[in-house]
Amino acid sequence: MTETKKYWKGIDELTAAPHFVEQSQKEFTEHIPVDEFLSDSSLGESKTHRRDFLKYLGFSVTAATLAACETPVTKAIPYLNKPEEITPGVANWYASTYFDGFDFAGVLVKTREGRPIHIKSNKNSQITGGGLNARVNSSVLELYDAKRAKAPARRKGDKWDKGLSWSVVDKEISGKLASSSKIAILTGTLMSPSSERAIAEFKAKYPSAEHVVYDTISSSGILRANNAMFGKSAIPAYNFDKAKVIVSLGADFLANWLNSNQYATQYAATRRPEADWMSKHFQFESKLSLTGSNADVRATVKPSEQGVAAAFLLKEIGGSNAVPAGLTDSAKKKLKKAAAELKAAGANALVVAGSNDVNVQLVVNAINEKLGSYGTTVDIDNALNIRKGNDTDFAALVNQMAAGSVDAILIAGVNPVYTSPAKIGGKADFKTALSKVKLKVYLGDRLDETGAVADYILPDNHYLESWNDYNPSKGMYNVAQPVISKLFSTRQWQESLLALAGNESAYGDYLQATWTAMGVSSTQWYSAVESGVYTTSGLAPAVAEVVATDAKPAAEKVEAAIVAAATVVSSSIDLSSAIASFKASSDWEVELYVKTGMGDGRHALNPWLQELPDPITKVTWDNYVTMHPTDLLELFGKSTPDNYEGHNELYLGEKYPAKVVTVEANGVTLTLPVYPLPGQAKKTIGIALGYGRSITEGLSREEWSGDLFADNKLIGQNAFPLITADFQYNSTVKISKTESTYPLATTQTHHTMMGRKMVNETTLDIFKSTKDAKAEGEYNEQMYLKDTYGKKKKPEELDLWADHGVALGHRWGMVIDLNTCTGCGACATACQSENNIPVVGKDEVRRSREMAWIRIDRYFSSTVNDKKVAELDQLNSIGEYHKAEVPDDEPQVVFQPLMCQHCNHAPCETVCPVAATTHSEEGLNQMAYNRCIGTRYCANNCPFKVRRFNWFQYDSLRLTQYPDFNKVNPAQDDLGRMVLNPDVVVRSRGVIEKCSMCVQRIQSGKLDAKKAGTPVQDGSIDTACSEACASGAIKFGDLNDKTSYVHKAAFENQRSYVMLEEVGVKPNIYYMTKVRNLDSKEA
Amino acid sequence: MHHVEADIREPLILGNKTYHQITEDVCAPVEGKAGKMWYMVFSLAALLALWGVGCIFYTVGVGIGVWGLNKTVDWAWDITNFVWWVGIGHAGTLISAVLLLFRQRWRMAINRSAEAMTIFAVIMAALFPLLHMGRIWMAYWVLPLPNQFGSLWVNFNSPLLWDVFAISTYFSVSLVFWYIGLIPDFATIRDRAVKPAAKKAYSIMAFGWTGSAKHWNRFEEVSLVLAGLATPLVFSVHSIVSMDFATSVIPGWHTTIFPPYFVAGAVFSGFAMVCTLMLVMRKVLHLEDYILVKHIEYMNIIIMLTGSMVGVAYLSELFISWYSGVEYEGYAFMNRATGWYWWSYAAMMTCNVISPQLMWVKKWRRKY
Q: What is the phi/psi pair of residue B297, to 5°?
């Protein structure tokens, strides 16, 4: 059958009959009756009269003009040639890595039509797993920051020559470097083989160059202690997932301490009461931290008592050391308890300390060693490279600079003018020292504090525009790849270094070359780029060598001075001098802490993070002094907070500004508002770092700064200068009151649950011993109401309406485990990024108009609640209500993420006059923005208060009356709008919005399943919040799918309950009772 | 003029007036020239109205955010104004409809002005639900109009929609009632008018009224029919308005006592407003012979009665909030009475519950 077959339409064709051939030549087989038309006699008579000429002319011109007019359209330009990898409407995900010297995380970047718009965690990351905090998932917005430096610039007197070309600045700077006899390179921790190689190459070209590593938030204490004990200047790997007992001395490991993204995930794994064991967590700290608020047992110790507490613990677990004086009785009692538990847990115990004091860390190491934790919960052999900065090196450099012996300095990735202490090593401040350097090249991304005093700015790329490789731990490599072409004329700083060293290669190629030199095949390289991670048992020495050049941080020469003898491992290390250095102080003390939103301050221009409420205080857009309420009232000579008057004194709200104090420490004076924070150690204060950046000028509304900060219109105040000369984050302080007040924008003005069951909680022993938690009197007691006939009925049975059919098809819902929720707020920023939620600014937040679709309610415990409410069964006077609002001095804390509850009997749906909010067949409470006329009745009638109203056109530049929104909302300028998710509409003014349960994701997940021809698999659809939750507290799924996690958790787990059950709204969001690892008697 | 009342009754018109005198007196304010004082007061009122228009432009132009509301208090003075304006309108309807049915002849002196007050009050009331909308330009969507938006229709479950029907019905009935009552008056003025333009205008408005017995007969019948239609409205309109709250799930709002309480409150505040206006009017327009102390007294009695009803309602609310055992209700009322806005609550109790009780004393209720 090799012959080509022929088909024919008829015999005529087959035989090629002449008439057929003739016919086939014609265009029309039938005769076209043109003659009839043309023979119409009247046609010949028609003619255009000359007098009609103007008419026709007029018509033609008008028609042409009209045709040329069209309504102005916002242009969407289609691809002329479609890029192979981009399908309009379909997102591309790229693996990358985030590391800024403070946070480290493997990320996946979502790009739409070439624009990065969303960041989620890379579950493949060997180090962070699923962990991703708010700072990292918000970092995508910083890419579109119009205030970044857009091209190299050179200082010219007080002004800048901007927009220079790279070749010009390269030539000028390398010329100057060549004549410099001493060059310093100051960077943050790198842990990057290629960066190290680039620096090595730079050093080869300029042999006088010295590389100094400086961490803005220093971990030198741990590095030194480990160097002293183990000969390794390294951060050990902490395995919180193996720790049955965790004692943290001021380490905020769930949010801000070292590799917190990893720790949060690990910690959550140990907090499931259904598992065989649940970790027990003790926290001893001065300021109520996020970690402290999640602890089972928490006690306050002053910063100066941290060492004492460590020594006390060591003694209690069998050490033979002395214990210096200090500590309250309550703290001692809890420390004893902790010590007993630690001993019982043995190798599965873990003690960590947040202090940067090498002596504290030495004692903590000794405790861990005594417990046998090394090898299980602490792993010094697989150290983490995420902190390398050595304070002593930095201080030495600053001294050299001040002495004028440094000719040139290149600063990359850090902002030391802003972040360094007022006096470094007891002498100069960084800015003064820097002014003595002849050539100051700043490789940062903008004209910030350091940039402002530099001679040259070689603007750095955003990390989403950069190549990078990281080696966070032995055998583990991460790759960062650019996901968008550079927006401005920037160049990543490593490439700039190479260019100055005469190597013109692109950094991507350079990176690959490094890896090739490390012995990685190109297949492996591409797979590493694709997955973002690369794990190996060991790489070729080429890399090891490069890493080694840095692994020998100049630390060694410094260590000698601090811990003279101890260079080798030993538990026999003499701790007596270390312990002798602990002196509890009775003065006021300050502890500088890092806020969950702002980190070390590099995110100051990220409005998502500025508007993210602090997990504990719920304050946005400011830093402040945290002080115990009693202390605060005493300072201002008022009554105690137990009474109504005292409570009113401390209330913060729209019309109730905060009191203001002056803080003096370390030769620096700050004037800051005070936040009364229960759980703060008495006679201590806390101040958040990362605020008061010069680049935030004008971002807060001036009228609300009042006279207080008239000459300083920044967001918050810079507390970095309060760091002591030896890089300690706490010191004694002098506090005086002022008469001023200052408005703080807080999203939660209430402190306690006032005896209600918003958050249901119990203790582990009760949980374990309870068979039927729903039974009467048990911890998750079923609520009953009485019907007209006095019959007890479940609230959902008392109903006037027919139910929405929920049995068939999907029924989307969520289960939120209050036990694992740490309250970090990563879900809130992820939601903001996914759903184009506008930022409204401090003044609007102050008026309770924040737009966040998900909020995390934080409640403090109150003994008034527990006792009096229980005794009285209900509150009978306003005074009692107010007393119930007064939290305990050392309260327990609960967090509750709250978004639209997607009620099956939604009160909002019935009241909308135009049916703009309706119930979907799949259990969603949906909002048709286009139909909404903005009566706000739905928001009034929502028992959870989760509906948000667009009081103004928050996203528009056209609103000249409210120029402030331009300043605070990234969706305002053209560049900022690039971050918007094209799948979600931007809401106009006058409409209500609220959590949609990421309906766009549900829809796309359903479509994917349909295309695949399978039912929707559990876990294949994730909402932004559940995806962002490092601890897996928020889970999304189909409640009708019997195999799904949410079905089992909501309907088969004893801990599940719904909020405000008595209202009878039948939510689709279920909560799971919080279980504290406590004995009910000690609780 | 002959008195038809028994001697034991006080006369409804003083001064032994003839029909002509009455016509002269009543028409005087319309036909006479406005004084300086009138122009001054009118200018002031016009200025205030202009200011209001300016505020409306500002609100609509910039956004509802300028009102200072927030996400827990999504309605504030817009809803209070709405309820208040609807409420005071009720006095006019009550006077013209209910009292007509009960043949209370004393209403004649005040019914026209009370009805006028109703019309303007309802217009004012309708303004607030309109203005409070986030997108006022879409306001017509609350009407069940056939449309091109697919199957979109209004939501008949929503009390706000009931409001739309209640208010629009109330407005149309009140307007017709008021206008029909005005026809003979227009005819009178038409007959007295000397300027041709005025004569023309009034003759159009008078619909060819001749005052024949047939006209009067029809007039009475129509009045009765309209009174019959308007009477249920006195009770339904504010009941429906109250359902904005009563049907919601919000503590402090979710209260079944609201419909009767709102109606009583409406009549109460409405009569207070009529009283306030009449006291000024009878002096300024020299109508002391027509609007007598007797009228004031009757109205004060109604105020006393409805004020007491409202007082009972307030106390019931407090009692129920305690008796129900719902802590949210308890807190809502406790906070209302003794929280930060205690002064406002105290003022309300003083003016609405205590001050009407003074009217028990005949001397006080006849004193003005």
A: -65, -45
Residues from chain B contacting residue A988 (CB–CB below 8 Å): 135
- Kindly state whether residue A73 falls inside one of the protein's structural domains: no
| Degrees to nearest 5, angle at CA A777 with A773 and A779 | 45
Mapped onto helix, strand or coil, the DSSP state of residue A784 is coil
CATH of the domain at A916: 3.30.70.20
Name which of A848, A934, A959 is nearest B134 (Cβ-Cβ): A934
Which residues form the domain of A112? 92-143
Structural domains counted in chain A: 5
Verify that A124 and A254 share a domain, yes or no: no
pLDDT band at residue A627 using 50, 70 and 90 as cut-offs: very high
Give the list of residues 6+ apart from residue B284 with CB closer than 8 angstroms, or none.
Answer: none
Verify whether the Cβ–Cβ distance B152 to A848 is below 8 Å: no
**Residues A691, A777 within the same domain:** no
Chain B interface, best mutation among A784, A949, A995, by max B CB count within 10 A: A949
Q: B160 and A945: CB-CB below 8 Å?
A: no
Q: Is the pLDDT of residue A898 over 90?
A: yes
> HSE-up of A544 (CA within 13 Å, CB side)?
9
Chain B: closest CA distance from residue A748 (Å):
12
Spatial neighbors of A462 by CB under 8 A, at least 6 apart, are A142, A143, A148, A445, A487, A490
What is the number of CB-based contacts under 8 A between chain A and chain B? 139
Say whether A442 sits in a helix, a strand or coil: strand
For residue A204, what pLDDT is reported? 87
The last residue of one of the domains, among A506, A538, A556, is A556
* Percent residues over pLDDT 90 in chain B: 17
**Can you read off the two tokens belonging to residue A723?**
């760091």
Quick check: is A961 in a domain? yes
Instruction: Report which listed range, A742-751, A1043-1052, B59-68, is most confident.
Output: A1043-1052
Q: Which residue of B has its CA nearest to A644?
A: B339
Inter-chain CB proximity A913 and B133 less than 8 Å: no
Q: Residue B305 has what pLDDT?
A: 92
CATH class, domain B19-32+63-365, is mainly alpha
Q: For residue A771, tell me if it sits in a domain.
A: yes
Contact list, B158 vs chain A (CB under 8 Å): 910-913, 915, 937
- Give the phi and the psi of residue A792 in degrees, each rounded to 5: -75, 130
Relative orientation angle of helices B36-62 and B111-131, to the nearest 10 degrees:
20
Domains of chain B, by residue range, sit at: 19-32+63-365
Q: What angle do CA B179, B182, B188 make, to 5 degrees?
A: 150
Alpha-helical (H) ranges within chain B are 19-31, 36-62, 77-93, 99-101, 111-131, 159-192, 196-205, 213-246, 258-284, 293-323, 327-338, 342-349, 362-365
Q: Verify that A158 and A122 share a domain, yes or no.
A: no
What ipTM was reported for this prediction? 0.90
Contacts of A812 (CB under 8 A, 6+ apart): A902, A922, A923, A924, A997, A1002, A1036, A1037, A1038, A1039, A1068
What distance in Å separates residue A618's CA from the closest CA in chain B? 17
Q: Are residues A324 and A452 in the same domain?
A: no
Placement of tokens 């399908």 in the chain: A87
Return the residue in B62, B67, B71 with the most chain A beta carbons within 10 A, the one to mutate for interface testing: B71
CA neighbor of B126 nearest in space, from B80, B167, B178: B167
For the stretch A940-980, pLDDT in tens is 999 999 999 998 888 765 555 555 566 666 556 778 888 88
* pLDDT-based confidence at residue A72 (cuts at 50, 70, 90): low
Q: CA A875, A877, A879: angle at the middle one, nearest 5?
A: 105
Cross-chain residue pair A951–B63, CB shorter than 8 Å:
yes
Domain of A267, CATH number, reads 3.40.228.10
Residues B157-184: pLDDT tens digits? 899 999 999 989 989 988 998 898 889 9
Residues A485 and A627 in one domain: no
